[in-house]
Amino acid sequence: MALAAPPPARVFAELVPARSPTPAPAPLVLARSPTPAPAPLGPLGREVHVSGSAELSAGPDRARVSVRLGSRKDAAGAARSSVSRRLEYIAQSARQRGVPEENMTVTEDFSRVENTYQMEAEVCIVFGDFGKMQNVCNLLIEKLGTSVTISPPHFYHTPEAVDNLRRQVCVAAVGNTRRKAQEVCHLFGQSLGKPLLIREEETREWGGHIDSHLPNSPDGLTLQERIQNATAHASCRVFAVFEIKGKGNRRTK
């Protein structure tokens, strides 16, 4: 079951003033003229602390369709031949539309029922292009009719797609956090410097299917509704500390 969407992102920021340690008492120096103190090196320790988040979604990148067929004949050869012809037509139709051979899996079962021979087969086809999937399924229904049974497509995500979503939502959260820090610095007339700390605090994922999950959507759903049900969502919250350069650190031309 999909979890409820997280609340809107909230960003917190604080400007940290320079940390000036309490100076130790200066030793007494007897000199004809006092040595001048060194010039300050700049506003060390000036930082802005920001929290930010992002949320992204990714539709499924794979769909699996199962095509089942069978034949029951008095002769074993006739039952095998009937199924073999249709299996070859299914495989050829998929190959002609760009489906790789390794994306098709065929299982066969041959048995004897009373005084007849029964041959059953199933072809599982994995599609990366949903348009090609629709074309292949429509063609098989048109040409083979009721002699085959085509299951509703099962949409899912590959591990690579899930990892990509995780990376994207983290990068988006960092980008949002940096933009907020820039706005805070601009508000006080300061210039944002380099990041001093970036920490991923929380990542949540919900929705979506993976390959090992069985399809659990009702048969009456449309194709777009199935894709929507299989869409994965992820959110990420990060905490970051940036240096504040200030106006005095800007180089003059």
Automatic annotation (TrEMBL):
<dbReference type="GO" id="GO:0043123">
    <property type="term" value="P:positive regulation of canonical NF-kappaB signal transduction"/>
</dbReference>
<dbReference type="InterPro" id="IPR007497">
    <property type="entry name" value="SIMPL/DUF541"/>
</dbReference>
<keyword id="KW-0539">Nucleus</keyword>
<comment type="similarity">
    <text>Belongs to the IRAK1BP1 family.</text>
</comment>
<keyword id="KW-0963">Cytoplasm</keyword>
<dbReference type="GO" id="GO:0005634">
    <property type="term" value="C:nucleus"/>
</dbReference>
<protein>
    <submittedName>
        <fullName>IKBP1 protein</fullName>
    </submittedName>
</protein>
<dbReference type="InterPro" id="IPR030312">
    <property type="entry name" value="IRAK1BP1"/>
</dbReference>
<dbReference type="Pfam" id="PF04402">
    <property type="entry name" value="SIMPL"/>
</dbReference>
<dbReference type="GO" id="GO:0005737">
    <property type="term" value="C:cytoplasm"/>
</dbReference>
<dbReference type="GO" id="GO:0006955">
    <property type="term" value="P:immune response"/>
</dbReference>
